[in-house]
Structure formats: C-alpha cells, structure tokens
Amino acid sequence: MTWFIGFSEGDGCFNVRDKGFSFSLAQDEKYVLTHIRDTLGFGKVSKFKDQEKWSYYVEKRYYIYLLILIFNGNLVLNHRYSQFYYFIDKFNTTLFNNKPYEYKIEIKERLLLPTLNDAWLSGFVDAEGHFGCPIETKRKHISHYISIVFEVGQNGEVRFFPYIQELLSGGLIAPKIQTEETHNRIIFKGYTKLGSIISYFDKYPLRSEHKLESYVLWKEMYKSLRLKEHLNLKLLPSLVAKAQVINKISKVSTSN
C-alpha cells in the first residue's frame, strides 16, 4: 500500500465538486491503473476521449471514505497534506442527502518520512522520477561521452529533498527560483554514487511499464560504465544507441 500512497502523492488528485467528491489518477499506461483498481477492489479505469491516456477514477462515497482511511496519517509531502486536510474538512462538513455522512473522520495531523524498507519512494519515482543517460559530444579524445543520472522533482517541498539526500547518501539539491514558488529537484550523477539507489529499486520494483523498462536499461548502462566500457571505441556506438533508447523511454514516462 505504501507504493500506492507514494504514486498518488506524485500523480493523484482529490477533487471537491458541487455534486460530491472524487479521486483520480491519469496515466498514458493502462496497466498500472488496472493494477491499482484490482489491488484496491474498487474504482473505474477508462480511456480519455480522443487521447491515448487513461484514468483511474473513484467517486462512490464509501470508496472515497476507504481512500481517506488509507491516506490519513500516511502522507509525506507538505502540499499533499494541505490538500488532503481541506478534502477531509469538506467531506466531514458536506451534507449527504441533507444529513452528515455516517462516517466522520478525524484527521491525523502528522507527516511521515519514507525509508529504504518500504515502497513509498518506488511509487513516488514511478510518478515523478527520471532515469537518464545524457550524451555529450566533441570530447577531446572521444566522440561521445555518456553519463548516468537519476533525479526526482517536486515543487515547493523544501523539507523532503534534504531528507532524500541523507536517505540515499548523496545527490545534489537543485532549487530554481523562477517564481514565488521554489522548484526543488534532487539529482544523482555518476556511477560511483548510485549503488544504494539500485539496491532499493531491486528490492522495491517500479510498476509502471515505461519507468521499469527505462530503469532496467539504465541499470545495464550503470554496469557498463562501471566496467569503463564507454572508453572502448568498439563498444561505444552500441552504448550510445542504448543511451538514446533510455532517454527516449524516460522522456515518455516522465510526460505521463
């Protein structure tokens, strides 16, 4: 369930509407949404009209109530907690058939932190992470140079990224102040700093098909770079081709 919470904190949406309440997730992949529906045992998966995009959607009040129980006291991100607090307040105070809903919820006023022994980070990376292999050209002694990068981004989560930096023993926190809101991103570069990340995702696998595919190829590239195969001119063209595939897949999965 922690994977689902992490994934939802990345891509989920709690909606308060005039006619009631809903929860939704939108993805280019049907598989990951049907997995969520089948695991929870409720909700609908449907295709967007005229788009290659799918949504998981819940609106029945009792199922919304069950989702609230899952998330209550188990959220990590500050802005998600603020949205959730508002959602519960409206859920508790909105009349259903001219009377309060039979189940009143007391919000648990706490935020958790993920660990390397639960799947929250795996779910969140499925929604917001990126595995890439940037390719540089015109190096002095080599036509192409391949580096390896793992990064996670989220707006305005100042508390979250220093914790992830400590949890994964590295990474560069890169804020970009372009508006009044601070955009934070943690970036891990270089094959010598990625061991703990690979150990974690091997233990708690990614579940979206694009993200898992990019990770598997990225992990293979990590092994090749550790063996310095990118410095072998005979092996370099195939590694460049693989890096291009990884970046293409990662671009698709990040845009979901």
Give the structure's gist in a few sentences.
With 256 residues, the protein is α+β, with helices and mostly antiparallel strands.
Output the structural class.
alpha+beta
Sheet having the most strands = 5 strands, antiparallel
Oligomer: single chain
CATH homology superfamily name of the largest domain: Homing endonucleases
Mean pLDDT metric = 87
Second rung of CATH, namely the architecture of the largest domain: Roll
CATH top level class name of the largest domain = Alpha Beta
Number of domains: 2
Instruction: List low-confidence stretches.
Output: none
What is the first-to-last residue Cα distance? 21 Å
Give helix % range. 40-55%
| Shape assignment | elongated
- Count every helix, treating DSSP H or I runs of 4 or more residues as helices: 9
Give the ordered list of helices and strands: HEEHEEHHEEHEEEEHEEEHHH
Rg estimate, integer Å: 21 Å
